[in-house]
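SAMPLE LOG
Freezer: B-3
Tube label: C17
Construct: single chain, 123 aa
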Amino acid sequence: MTSQVHPNSFISDNVQLGNNVKIGPYCYLDGNIIIQENTELKSHVVISGNTTIGRNNKFYSFSNIGCDPQDLKFSGEDSYLEIGDSNTFRENVTISKGTKEGGMLTSIKNHNLFMTGVHIAHD
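STRUCTURE (predicted):
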């Protein structure tokens, strides 16, 4: 089954979508992004940077995923965010990519629930 992308969403050329990925209205995906199968972005979700997202994840409105860390020592390093399988990210969740001092990687494993307004700063 192919992916479904709402016509009011922006998907850059570097984004790779697996089978049955559903992207709702007003989502913005720009960066080196991989989204594996059966993942759903409801609406108004932003995903950026070097971000890899596993299978069966669900992102609710106004989540900001893979953004620059809120760390004054961060100076634009090419860092990463990896998200595993079967996670739920409720409204207004932010997850930043890694920093140099933290190994350049923020890693989220499998089967997590991130409730409304959760902020994963980095690393």
